[in-house]
Amino acid sequence: DCFKAFYVHKFRAMLGKNRLIFPGEKVLLAWSGGPSSSSMVWQVLEGLSQDSAKRLRFVPGVIFVDGITSSWVFPVALRSAIRENPLPKGRWPTPHNSARKHCRGFPQGEVAPCPALPGSVSPDSFCLRFSEGAAFGKSLEERSKTLAEVKPILQATGLPWHVVALEEVFSLPPSVLRCSAQEPAGSEGAYKAAVDSFLQQQHVLGAGGGPGPTQGKEQPPQPRLDPQSLARPPAAAQTEALSQLFCSVRTLTAKEELLQTLRTHLILHMARAHGYSKVMTGDSCTRLAIKLMTNLALGRGAFLAWDTGFSDERHGDVVVVRPMRDHTLKEVAFYNRLFSVPSVFTPAVDTKAPEKASIHRLMEAFILRLQTQFPSTVSTVYRTSEKLVKAPRDGPAASDSSPCCLLCMCALDVDAADSATAFGAQTSSRLSQMQSPTPLTETRTPLGPCCSPGVGRVQGCGQGACRREDPQACIEEQLCYSCRVNMKDLPSLDLLPPYMLAEAQLRTQRAWVLQEIQDCLIEDSDDEAGQS
């Protein structure tokens, strides 16, 4: 009983001291089936029950993203073996002994050509096909089995739930990458006023004597099992496109970052489509400590406050909150064991991967190994993250005018080409290589569209819109430093979902048009700006 009271108090205190979730607000619970997210959903259900002392007053819903989570071997693991013993065309034997030393921890399987390059026998285009699955990701039988385990748990919660396939990112609109106008955060007085108004409405409904919720019995709406709540089978073309995208990524680090980005965009779109203004994730204290060290290694030091803090307001109208950030994985495991919290195990991208397979795995092993020797390691790293302060915006409309990254949607942290940093030196050298000397006759010839329709676009951006012959450079300049480094492991950006390519083209066109009409714009003086 003491442990349960302490565990519940941590969850309630995290929500109570921040006061970001107002009464009656719709909150989407991002459930992955793991221990932390399952415990989070259980805590919300406990807070909505009749026996709770201080009941939660928001309206929750649950979402589960069914995606490609099966383990695979990245091409680096098999390069040396295949180069030593080239495989005959049309024959795909089991991995060589020299390859197994790079693939320790993986089950016995077959070597198969990567779907991204059909018929290719290049050493860089191989992935591991397990005996129980397809050449990439999970088979239809495995996904059906996972959904069969997920559906009873979601139905038992009594909350509105949504199951979406990861392949649906190829049908997202470009607007998902645009930060909507964010309402200013309410003060403590505004929160108290919202609570009083909510209690007054409940009292009026209870005094009416109707079938509505009575005083102290506000119940969340019961889920309607419409076809939208069930996971529709993804189209074969979308599944193939997703497989080609992930199989073309060279490193496991870039695959994990890309997978997390696509999941975030999909959850964000579902939250906006169903009217949710908050999204809860089950990031625990241990996971956030590992994430902090990982993001430092990935070059995301400028965004640690958003990536590990309680709230993440980068998306504008939808705020991501992390109420489980005070619970360690050990506490979560004990609570789930003692109180029989249901969960579903789904293999992750790095399941059974070697320790040095990716930066994420390396940092996880480093932190957990230190934790076994020094029990205060996770707590120290986590408390350090609490001291990070988010950089203030440059005005109320800064979120609309300031450029943000095309993938992570954080503010661009890259320097100019003439800056005295290492990144600026790299950028200037790359630009000098691209600007090769051309004859005078060639410079006077009209240039065609620099963004060809073949890069996921419906039409070119027009002459001079990008001022580059390589459309990939137009996309890279809209990425932050960390995302640029990760995208270097993707040979071609043509495989990205269409909504990313369309938004990149639109931003490039707007920047070019703004530059063309800059001389015609009338800027407000300081006095007029202060009066407005």
TrEMBL record:
<feature type="region of interest" description="Disordered">
    <location>
        <begin position="204"/>
        <end position="234"/>
    </location>
</feature>
<protein>
    <recommendedName>
        <fullName>Cytoplasmic tRNA 2-thiolation protein 2</fullName>
    </recommendedName>
</protein>
<dbReference type="GO" id="GO:0032991">
    <property type="term" value="C:protein-containing complex"/>
</dbReference>
<dbReference type="GO" id="GO:0005829">
    <property type="term" value="C:cytosol"/>
</dbReference>
<dbReference type="GO" id="GO:0032447">
    <property type="term" value="P:protein urmylation"/>
</dbReference>
<dbReference type="GO" id="GO:0000049">
    <property type="term" value="F:tRNA binding"/>
</dbReference>
<dbReference type="GO" id="GO:0002143">
    <property type="term" value="P:tRNA wobble position uridine thiolation"/>
</dbReference>
<dbReference type="GO" id="GO:0016779">
    <property type="term" value="F:nucleotidyltransferase activity"/>
</dbReference>
<comment type="similarity">
    <text>Belongs to the CTU2/NCS2 family.</text>
</comment>
<dbReference type="InterPro" id="IPR019407">
    <property type="entry name" value="CTU2"/>
</dbReference>
<dbReference type="Pfam" id="PF10288">
    <property type="entry name" value="CTU2"/>
</dbReference>
<keyword id="KW-0963">Cytoplasm</keyword>
<keyword id="KW-0819">tRNA processing</keyword>
<dbReference type="GO" id="GO:0016783">
    <property type="term" value="F:sulfurtransferase activity"/>
</dbReference>
<comment type="pathway">
    <text>tRNA modification; 5-methoxycarbonylmethyl-2-thiouridine-tRNA biosynthesis.</text>
</comment>
<comment type="subunit">
    <text>Component of a complex at least composed of URM1, CTU2/NCS2 and CTU1/ATPBD3.</text>
</comment>
<comment type="function">
    <text>Plays a central role in 2-thiolation of mcm(5)S(2)U at tRNA wobble positions of tRNA(Lys), tRNA(Glu) and tRNA(Gln). May act by forming a heterodimer with CTU1/ATPBD3 that ligates sulfur from thiocarboxylated URM1 onto the uridine of tRNAs at wobble position.</text>
</comment>
<dbReference type="InterPro" id="IPR014729">
    <property type="entry name" value="Rossmann-like_a/b/a_fold"/>
</dbReference>
